Amino acid sequence: MAIKQDVNAPLIVTIGVVSGLLLLVIVFGLQAWFVHEEQSEIAEKWEATGKSQYVELRAAQRDKIEHEGVDPLTKARTISIEKAMQVIAQTGGKLPSTHPSGGQPSPQK
């Protein structure tokens, strides 16, 4: 009795193609899962940290430019950014003089 030793090429090619496609699906699926988990972890960390010093600093700076008052460090009078923009628009883009009205600047030595 003779043993038949033919190679079934179409079956081998089909198994190879299906295996390759299955491998690609697994690789892309794992990559998508990893990215999703990474983004979830980053979002949880951001929520857990609360306000950082930079957020608080930015809020303090915004408060400083939006309100009028006296700067405690330099004792200079400050105006809001809105009022400053109105003054610049009214004077045609020129900065107002820092000298009192009618006063002359002191001569330079």
Describe this structure in words.
Helix content is 60%, strand content 4%. The protein has 109 residues and is mainly alpha-helical. The chain has two domains: 15-50; 51-94, no CATH class. The protein has a two-stranded antiparallel ribbon. The protein is rod-shaped. It starts with 8 loop residues before the first helix and ends in a 19-residue tail after the last helix. The relative contact order is 0.04.
Could you tell me the strand content as a percent range? under 5%
Low-pLDDT stretches are none
Number of strands: 2
Could you give the order of strands across the largest sheet?
Answer: 1-2
Shape: rod-shaped
Q: Return Rg in Å.
A: 37 Å
Supply the number of structural domains. Answer: 2
**Most strands sheet:** 2 strands, antiparallel
Q: Calculate the terminal CA-CA distance, rounded to whole Å.
A: 124 Å
**What letter string, H or E per element, gives the SSE order?**
HHEEH
* Quaternary organisation of the protein chains: single chain
Tell me, rounded to a whole number, the average pLDDT.
Answer: 84
Structural class: mainly alpha
DSSP helix count?
A: 3
Q: What helical percentage do the residues reach?
A: 55-70%
